[in-house]
């Protein structure tokens, strides 16, 4: 029996309510909530009273997908509003799944994103499995960059909390409309506004503690 998925937190529900309705928003949610499976998000949204525009696949779209198969890039151009991941999943559901050779464009994406993104995030962007991305990354000799540890305690706490939740801070701060938490040369600049917003989204509180 598989492990039961953790319950959704209020901050996760807020993100779903905000972004689920549009195709671009749903794609962003996959980055904001990498620890949640697409199927889980699709099941959660209706429970929150949120319906995505054009979420259901039509017979016409299926016909286009069959004509374009196995060229997912071509299908993505012919199916505006459908992400590469959505197209790949639909292909599998229709029994169109086949082994695909890695294209130069896909290798470029892996080379550019793999050092700083998780294999799962890259897989979602390319419509590939995590195992396929991991294998391709190793084949290309791409080494992941170690995460920097912030010296400021509050920043370190925020980074640690984001890591536990499986959230990419840079994507979250962009969605919140603020600058990165740490930026500048050698990551010396700290945005207190960004820290406050992220802490609020995570359901935490900032407070001052004075020495006696």
Quickly list its features.
12 helices; two-stranded antiparallel ribbon; 3 domains; 212 residues; 2% strand; mainly alpha; 2 strands; 54% helix
Description:
The protein is mainly α and 212 residues long. The chain folds into 3 domains: 1-56, no CATH class; 59-139, no CATH class; 153-201, no CATH class. Helices cover 54% and strands 2% of the residues. It has 12 helices and 2 strands; from the N terminus they run αααααααααααββα. The protein has helices at residues 10-19, 23-32, 38-47, 59-68, 72-78, 84-93, 104-113, 119-126, 130-139, 153-165, 169-175, 192-201; strands spanning 182-183, 189-190. Strands 1-2 form a two-stranded antiparallel sheet. A hairpin with a 5-residue loop joins strand 1 and strand 2. Helix 1 runs antiparallel to helix 2 (23-32), helix 4 runs antiparallel to helix 5 and helix 8 (119-126) packs across helix 9. The termini are far apart. The relative contact order is 0.10. The model has no long low-confidence stretch (mean pLDDT 76).
Write the layout of secondary structure elements.
Blueprint (H helix, E strand, L loop, with lengths): L9 H10 L3 H10 L5 H10 L11 H10 L3 H7 L5 H10 L10 H10 L5 H8 L3 H10 L13 H13 L3 H7 L6 E2 L5 E2 L1 H10 L11
Antiparallel strand pairs: 1-2
Helix pairs in contact: 1-2, 4-5, 8-9
